[in-house]
Design brief:
Elements (H helix, E strand, L loop, with lengths): L2 H7 L1 H12 L15 H7 L26 E3 L14 H11 L3 E3 L1 E3 L4 H6 L6 H13 L7 E4 L8 E2 L1 H19 L7 E5 L17 H14 L10 H9 L3 H4 L5 E6 H7 L3 H8 L8 E2 L2 E9 L2 E5 L22 H13 L4 E5 L20 H6 L4 E6 L3 H10 L3 E5 L12 H14 L3 H17 L4
Parallel strand pairs: 1-2, 3-4, 6-10, 6-11, 11-12, 12-13
Antiparallel strand pairs: 4-5, 7-9, 8-9, 9-10
Helix pairs in contact: 2-7, 8-9, 16-17
Amino acid sequence: MRPQIVGEARRHYDGLIEAIESEGLSVVAAISTFMDNREACRAYFLEGTNGSGTPAPGGGEGRPRPRVSQIVSLTGFSFVGGPVMNDTEASVEFLQELGIPFRSLVSLDLQTIENWEQSRVGLNPVQTAMQVAIPELDGATESRLFGGVRHKSRQPEPLTERCRLIAARLAGWNRLQTAPRHSLKLSLVIFCFPPNKGNLGTAADLDVFASLLEVLTRLRAEGYDIPRLQDPEDLRRRILEGNSRDWGTVANVAYRMPAEEYRDLCPYLAEIEREWGPAPGVLNASGRDLMILGARLGNAFIGVQPGFGYEGDPMRMLAAGGGTPHHGFMALYCYLQKVYRADAVIHVGTHGAAEFMPGKQVGLSSGCWPDRLLGAMPHLYIYSVNNPSEGTIAKRRTSAELISYLTPPLENAGLYKGLVSMKELLNAYRSTPSESEKRQLFASIEEQSRALNLS
């Protein structure tokens, strides 16, 4: 193969590497056999090895340690097994031992860039299965596009905007791994649906405020700048009450964003105004200001996700083919990205609405609203383990790192109070052969039913 063709064939790889390096990160690029990535990882991504995966002379004693902060696979297949099979157990065992994040990015090998751009779904089913679903079994995250082939071209090219976003997110994840804990700012988002005070902090099978307190207490113990909180009720009051009565809002107003500031921060304003009218609109707004609800607790901001639909039709936006989030919804994420400048966003509980906003289903573009809302912020999602279908949506449409929680245990509650007596009377009535005894039991059943308001 002529050198020019070889250079053209790697343009998408070069474009991604250049974008990552422009974020100030170093890249160790390794060519791997597509059947098993462990060999390349051992050879190049571990300290104290000599390029063959064996300990280098003078490399020190003990097991080699990773010399990279995260692994980014561009092979498009499973970590162990390639395109024809996948050995998930071997992949998970190796990656757990390595102890660093594993990303698997996607190149458009089975459809053209034009086909992807025009598709409402995004990646076609074959690409989704091979390049997203199978790597997910290995624990891969960040299944984003970085390159592909155009209809009239024979060689791949980088998707420049996608590469920049990937690079910024990798830099964000690296900062979370390496920066002093006290310097990091976290945003935790809770839900309020349908929007009223009684529904603040709702999530399926999760005690939100008690769980949130546990998370904040753990973060404080690990060095994050977070004040000590007394109990879940103390946390709930800080978020729910505060100045909420002054503004007539469902929660404390943490920040008032003037419409002029919102116009400067939101690059998608024209599209939103075509759908919802001029900013600031009427949802999560007061006068000319957009109201960002929540509470700042040291370097943690607890935000309240606004309602996400139309008046009287709150579910209308879910996975819609078109449309946009309203100004109030967009303003929260503008605040997190560009005012508060969160190092990471954590959605607390199953589930919110960002992952259901209009756009492609998998393999998102810069025109998709989940991407626009979260931008380059690293994203974690505390999600119920018994809902893998919607968890998969969150993982693929918002590049969420899922942290699972168990559902509460269930057991047969049985009958209580007078119902136990009623059951015994009914069983006795059914089993007795005596007609006179049945008449007595029937009278007792009628009396008990009146006492239980069953009559």
